[in-house]
Amino acid sequence: MDVKENPETTSGSPPPRLDCIKCFDALWFCYTPFHQMQNYYRYGEFDNCFGKWGDLVDCLTLKTKRAAEVEEILIAREKAKPHIWTFRTVDEASEHWWRMYKHAALMSTPLPRTAQPPPKSAES
């Protein structure tokens, strides 16, 4: 075992760590001509980078707090983030699939009886 490896630190997940360099790099990139032209092409307006400034100021503000307090704040923020996937019941998933891909399904070959769209509900 290497001297630098400590079984206590390698067994669990690492504590959240503040890294303001990432915020600064994101802000720096935001002002590059590449990003500004890309944003103009996609959305029709230049990016004012307001969100990046806010992230950097927030990071620097957290650097002034105690480590235990910062850890609590970061863990609370992580828990508050919405999950990347949307969970649906079978009926919700089926209905969503038909809304998204109805055009492709109806233009293809006739569907077997088991793959017919769900019946229209009285609410629709």
UniProtKB/TrEMBL annotation:
<dbReference type="InterPro" id="IPR021475">
    <property type="entry name" value="Pants/Emi1-like"/>
</dbReference>
<protein>
    <recommendedName>
        <fullName>Early meiotic induction protein 1</fullName>
    </recommendedName>
</protein>
<dbReference type="Pfam" id="PF11326">
    <property type="entry name" value="PANTS-like"/>
</dbReference>
